[in-house]
Specification:
388 residues, 5-stranded antiparallel beta sheet, mainly beta, single chain
């Protein structure tokens, strides 16, 4: 019995140090972080690299999902030459339910058995591992997942400068500290006075310093904004789930109401600070038509790009576009990228709306994201291009 107990204790300690069997990180090279390619920061729209359409970029490294018959995980490859940087695999665990960018260095991989691993991309190492407790609908959701795919929602919120990983799974919401992997707070689903039949339809999304919780209680919406730091209820809202909401900084949150009006609220109590009835953002389910910088909220309607001052909602500048087209607007406060027509990308001065450069591509363009002066643009059905 002493030998059995001793072996069990040693095994637990070893697993805590090296991870559960099958989880591995294989390094194959070094990255350059931060990356400053030729063409970065120039007025012209220069193509500085190509990446997979499903990859996320960290410096000169593109991270993409790894689907292998024997293991799932993540693969990191150098943008400049496609050479491998590292591979994160877990052969014995449940399949992946997704991954999310936590900050400019780290990505989190989440598996169906509740295992979460945070990977430092430039260094190619596992920062921490965590295990989520099972939710009240574990068995029902597992059967649903096996037939229809993962019923998990993963996003990121913030507590000041600390990233928080927001994971909704099996009728339970867990918010993890991005530095350590410890659970800050949880929202278990179940019957209550306000929702006597249980949370039959539960959704959650982290945005800035808020976690927006969406519940369908017996056919009626019961949506609340929670403080990301500790889960305290701040205010409630109905008539829309705010999936598209965007944090503006300065304790403000932007959203679009059912009539297409642009609405800016205070984070602490949901009070409407200003509203633009004619912003033209009706078809904006994911918030991509809103670009946020320090002082301006720039929106893309069918026929124009308009920058509103976050402080008071006044128009800073407006530029009409030649072709009626919905789309994404990207901005970092220095430059703004939009698709002028199906194949033309235009680069604007974010402060004035002045055209800096235009570039026509061989196929339809779709702006995706802008970070550190580099934008990812989808071109047709092939790989995305990086422009600076």
């Amino acid at each position: 019995m002493i030998h059995i107990v001793s072996c069990a204790v040693v095994s637990v300690l070893l697993l805590g140090l090296v991870g559960l069997p099958g989880e591995s990180m294989t390094s194959a090279g070094k990255s350059s972080h931060p990356w400053r390619p030729v063409g970065w920061g120039t007025p012209a729209i220069d193509v500085v690299g190509r990446v997979s359409a499903i990859a996320d970029v960290y410096g000169d490294v593109a991270v993409r999902p790894l689907w292998d018959p024997h293991a799932e995980g993540l693969a990191a490859e150098r943008i400049t030459d496609g050479s491998p940087v590292w591979r994160y695999e877990n052969a014995w665990a449940d399949d992946s339910v997704g991954h999310v960018r936590v900050d400019d260095r780290r990505i989190a991989a989440v598996r169906r058995d509740g295992r979460v691993s945070l990977v430092d991309v430039p260094d190619g190492r596992i920062v921490w591992r965590a295990d989520l407790p099972q939710g009240p609908y574990h068995e029902a959701n597992r059967a649903y997942d096996e037939e229809w795919g993962a019923a998990w929602e993963i996003s990121v919120a913030r507590d000041g400068s600390v990233p928080l990983l927001v994971i909704l799974h099996e009728g339970r919401l867990d918010v993890l500290d991005g530095r350590t992997g410890t659970i800050r707070w949880s929202f278990p689903s179940g019957s209550s006075a306000s929702c006597p039949t249980g949370d039959s339809d539960l959704g959650a999304r982290g945005e800035g310093e808020l976690v927006l919780l969406f519940r369908d209680c017996a056919g009626a919406e019961s949506n609340v904004a929670l403080r990301a730091a500790d889960g305290r209820r701040l205010w409630g809202f109905d008539g829309g789930r705010l999936w598209h909401a965007r944090a503006l900084g300065a304790e403000r949150l932007a959203s679009v109401d059912g009539g297409g009006a642009l609405v800016v609220r205070e984070v602490r109590d949901g009070k409407v600070l200003w509203r633009v009835p004619s912003a033209g953002l009706r078809d904006n389910p994911d918030g991509s038509a809103m670009g946020v910088s320090d002082e301006l909220l720039t929106v893309r309607s069918k026929t124009a790009v308009t920058a509103y001052r976050i402080a008071d909602g006044e128009v800073a500048w407006r530029r009409d576009l030649d072709t009626a087209r919905d789309g994404t607007v990207l901005t970092d406060g220095v430059h703004t990228y939009v698709a002028q027509d199906a194949t033309t990308l235009v680069k604007l001065d974010a402060r004035t709306g002045r055209v800096v450069d235009r570039r026509r591509f061989e196929d339809d363009v779709a702006p995706r994201w802008l970070r550190d002066g580099l934008a990812t643009i989808g071109v047709g059905a092939g790989d995305d291009v990086l422009v600076g």
